[in-house]
Amino acid sequence: MDNYISKKLWDGPNPWFDVSGSKLQTDIWLYSEENERGELTGMSTIIKSEIMTNQGGYKGVKINSMSDIELSENFIDKNGKFIGFNIIVKKHAQVPEIEKFELNIQGYQSVNVAQRIDINYIGKNLNISFKTDVFPSASAGIIGAGGSFKLIQYDQPSYRDTHSLFKNGVRKPCLYPRN
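RE: above sequence
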């Protein structure tokens, strides 16, 4: 999953550098485990998330007040037979303090770059869901032996409308905790 600011859709303040590009990327690798009969006996995962550096040289930071989760578990029935797995990845990032300060003095709040990825397999049913906060854009897909394809594309709304600190001269409430 890649959360990024779309250059085409950006309507926020323009510093001396281009603010577009990736902000938070998460990759999940799934590996199947099989017995000699070719039956699925388990799954193993590698999860890699990276908070990116923007073109101005500012690296985003983790939001300490919001927990990150990386969970991968196999489900085994009472007879020891594999029946499924569950993967949950939840990540949060924001701009560093200097950018946060600069946004605030211009009348904007910083963004919670949020990702949640849920992958569940029970029986023969596979469910995959991706969630993000209101800003920025996000895309996610699958790459495998059979090819690759995009599962979601979420285009960011107006930054001015969603992250302005003031509406009609009145300070808007912040909807979630910030560092």
